[in-house]
Amino acid sequence: MLFQGKDGELRLYDYGNDGTTYYMKVLFCEMNYDGPVARPRTEETLIMDRGNFDSNAHYVEGNDEPRYAPIPITFSCRLADTVNTRALADWLSGATNIPNVAGGTTRIYSFDGVTSIDGNTLPAFRDTGKQSYRVEMLWDGTSDIGFKSDEVHFKPGESKITESAEGLTLSCNGQVFGDVTRITSFTSSVSPFRAWY
């Protein structure tokens, strides 16, 4: 059986420095998730003797930049006039204190500077106002398949709302700074984020 978009679910996670990691389920997805399945490897250059391939031919590895460069990720969703969906725009704007169901605010903690690639912990963003999240996309099937992208930053100016007769569509454009790994289930021991407005 083929996987179908309707069987997929996307979640955003904060880091949870206060002891609770929150996630937000992205509802009303337009089924147009576009994200990486792995990080690129470094470049390899073949070195030969004056252009001749012989027993001395060998590869040299290029610099690490391709391995650590940000990778684009995009998706969009319809916004509904119900709980949770408006809060998504707040998360993507980089806000840290988001209104919650109790009438107060919930602190959302950034993922930057806490994950690693090849055993190297990534540094925190120079701009302390930048927020990053974990994005998990999972398709349900006989054998579930999904991907986890760490340290995803959504530039506020690149996420847009488009109006049409059918409703409001939020288009999200981000960059994956952390690692990308395959998953078969969502991260456990987390709490759903509940917005009150």
Compute the number of structural domains: 1
Q: Any idea of the CATH topology? A: Pnp Oxidase, Chain A
Strand element count: 15
> Biggest sheet: strands, sense, closure?
9 strands, mixed
Under the CATH scheme, the architecture is: Roll
Taken from the alpha-carbon principal axes, the silhouette is elongated
Report the end-to-end length measured between terminal Cα atoms. 40 Å
CATH class: Mainly Beta
Which percent range fits the helix content?
under 10%
Report low-confidence residues grouped into runs of 5 or more: none
Q: Could you state the order of secondary-structure elements as H and E?
A: EEEEHEHEEEEEEEEEE
Q: Summary?
A:
By secondary structure, the protein is mainly beta. 7% of the residues lie in helices and 39% in strands.
How would the blueprint of this fold be written?
Layout: E1 8-13, E2 22-26, E3 44-47, E4 58-61, H1 65-68, E5 71-79, H2 85-93, E6 97-99, E7 105-107, E8 116-117, E9 120-121, E10 133-139, E11 145-154, E12 160-164, E13 167-176, E14 180-183, E15 191-192
Parallel strand pairs: 2-15
Antiparallel strand pairs: 1-2, 1-10, 3-4, 5-13, 6-7, 8-9, 10-11, 11-13, 11-14, 12-13
